[in-house]
Design goal:
The chain is α/β, with parallel strands linked by helices. It has two domains: about 325 residues, 3-Layer(aba) Sandwich (Rossmann fold); about 150 residues, no CATH class. The protein contains 20 helices and twelve strands. It has a twelve-stranded mixed sheet with strand order 2-1-12-11-10-3-9-8-4-7-5-6. A hairpin with a 2-residue loop joins strand 1 and strand 2. The radius of gyration is 29 Å and the shape is elongated. The structure holds adenosine-5'-diphosphate and magnesium ion. The site of magnesium ion has 4 residues, from helix 2. Adenosine-5'-diphosphate (ADP) binds next to helix 2. InterPro entries: HerA_C (IPR033186), P-loop_NTPase (IPR027417), T4SS_component (IPR051162). Keywords: ATP-binding, Helicase, Hydrolase, Nucleotide-binding. GO terms for molecular function: helicase activity. It comes from Formosa algae.
């Protein structure tokens, strides 16, 4: 048997699975693609997460596009974090092109241009389905992690949530949360102190500053109603294809905190609402995070821990997470260690540091008698990558330098006209895009304070009356100073007694 034959046999046997799979391309030996030596990924192990890495322009995003298309065809819904805005083309068929025909001829796969069912989502004011969550849904623990609070501050946040629960005050947006924070050390101070112990102004002040910081990254757009039902990410179209949900994040690059807040809340929500996966042998949802370094870069230690544990847990719900990034080291060790699929595009060896990184990367791949992994890593062409998946028993498939198939949908983005047409047809846009500001903690607390004010004013009137009766030399001003302070909604200590009485009713 020639080396080529032996290689072909190893690749073919290693990529034969009992259940369903997707095909990424054909294996390359000595820089020559071997026709029909298909490199496949079984659906069964797609919930084991993965990494797509490589230098800029080597084909990472196209690999993501290819995976998303093939999953959709298998009826598996996909969520894409589109940081650079280069994935909308999935909604339109690609174009036949000499280069693509050549590529597919070498791989041994026919090329068919196709479009896919796409919905565009947004976290901000961009057009698309608005993704939102309420502060209540977020919960005290997650909120504290996101805000990077100390233990004492987290304790206060828990008390605040408890108070809102006890008093049926819905916490919908950050406006509500800020209001109750202020209330706890101002108008409601005595009430809080009695029920939960003293809350220091210094602590609430510190929490408030963190909230404002989050708001400055645009989080006020994300918190609120209508909150997004993550089940809507798992829609299947009338042809049985999974929807490809593209979250447009081009305006989020400079707001990493908002991005990690969103990612964590989304994963937590999916984890709590998706049922434990049975033995379906296929994922329920596959999530791709392009430019993944953005969620890890500015994340605090507490947040990282949270991400690490949720990444581990979410597997059992049949959700696969794929991180797309230039350098594997952009992803924390603890997450890297959990990844089943590795797709490594070319790395460039410009500096000594680059060469060291290449050596390290090569060590993370299974040994192969056909490749010197470090050399292959620098020689891969555009749209070629080293692939190592997990077979259905969870063992690594043979390492394969792979010529990737081309995306069936458009490699370029949609025009503005095409985008608005797509968005105008979306059922989800109709469901989620109305801004509602129903009565929540903010309004209810204001009402409570107003009531207390009115009561205090009456009390002051009564006092004034009784003073009038008694002869006095003191010249009264137009408005009693107490009333003045009260109506400006800032309360002096002596009024608290009245206030607490009113509140208790
Ligand atoms: N699988 C592929 N089939 C055809 N062309 C590809 C493929 N992968 C990459 N290319 C070409 O390389 C270019 C850069 O790929 P891209 O995925 O945007 O790189 P990256 O995300 O790594 O920066 C694409 O615009 C396309 O022309
Ligand atoms: Mg890219």
């Amino acid at each position: 048997m020639t080396t080529n034959d032996a290689f072909f046999k190893e690749i073919t046997e290693g990529n034969t699975f009992k259940g369903e799979y997707i095909t990424m391309g054909s294996a390359i030996l000595n820089e020559q693609p071997i026709k029909n030596a298909y490199v496949n990924i079984p659906l069964k192990t797609l919930n084991r997460h993965g990494l797509i890495a490589g230098a800029t322009g080597t084909g990472k995003t196209k690999t993501l596009q290819v995976m998303a298309e093939n999953l959709s065809e298998k009826g598996i819904p996909v969520l894409l974090m589109d940081i650079k805005g280069d994935l909308s083309g999935l909604a339109k068929p690609g174009e036949n092109h000499v280069k693509i025909d050549e590529r597919h001829e070498k791989i041994g796969l026919p090329f068919t241009a196709k479009n896919f069912p796409v919905d565009l989502l947004t976290l901000s004011e961009q057009d698309g389905v608005r993704l939102r969550a309420t502060v209540s849904e977020f919960g005290p623990i997650l909120l504290s992690r996101i805000l990077d609070l100390t233990d004492t501050q987290s304790g206060i946040v828990s008390v605040i949530f408890k108070y809102c629960d006890d008093n049926k005050l819905p916490l919908l947006d950050l406006k509500d949360f800020k209001k109750i924070l202020q209330y706890a050390t101002q108008e409601g101070k005595a009430e809080f102190q009695e029920a939960y112990g003293r809350i220091s102004t210094a602590s609430t002040g510190a929490i408030l500053r963190k909230v404002v910081e989050l708001e400055q990254q645009g989080a006020d757009l994300f918190f609120g109603e209508t909150s997004f039902d993550v089940q809507d990410l798992t829609r299947i179209d009338h042809e049985g294809r999974g929807y490809i949900n593209i979250l447009r994040l081009t305006d989020i690059q400079d707001r990493p905190k908002l991005f990690s807040t969103f990612m964590l809340s989304l994963l937590a929500e999916i984890y709590t609402t998706f049922p434990e996966q049975g033995d379906s042998g296929r994922p329920e949802l596959v999530i791709f995070i392009d430019e993944a370094h953005l969620i890890f870069n500015e994340a605090s230690k507490a947040l990282l821990n949270q991400i690490e544990s949720i990444v581990k847990l979410i597997r059992s719900k049949g959700v696969g997470l794929y991180f797309v990034t230039q350098n594997p080291t952009d992803v924390p060790e603890a997450v890297l260690g959990q990844l089943g699929l590795k797709i490594q595009h070319a790395l460039r060896a410009f500096t000594a540091k680059d060469r060291k990184a290449i050596k390290l990367t090569a060590q993370n791949y299974p040994d192969s008698e056909y490749y010197d992994t470090a050399t292959v890593l620098t020689n891969l062409g555009t749209g070629e990558a080293l692939v190592s998946a997990l077979d259905e028993k969870g063992r690594p498939t043979p390492l394969a330098a792979t010529m990737m198939r081309a995306p069936m949908s458009r490699m370029d983005v949609l025009t503005t006209g095409e985008l608005s047409e797509l968005i105008s047809k979306s059922k989800l846009v109709k469901k989620y895009n109305e801004t509602i500001d129903r009565e929540s903690a903010y309004e209810l607390l204001n009402e409570k304070i107003k009531l207390a004010e009115a009561e205090a004013e009456k009390e002051a009137e009564r006092q004034k009356e009784s003073k009038k009766k008694a002869p006095t030399r003191r010249k009264s001003t137009a408005m009693n100073p107490i009333v003045k302070v009260l109506t400006s909604a800032t309360f002096i200590r002596s009024v608290f007694g009245i206030l607490t009485k009113v509140m208790k009713k």
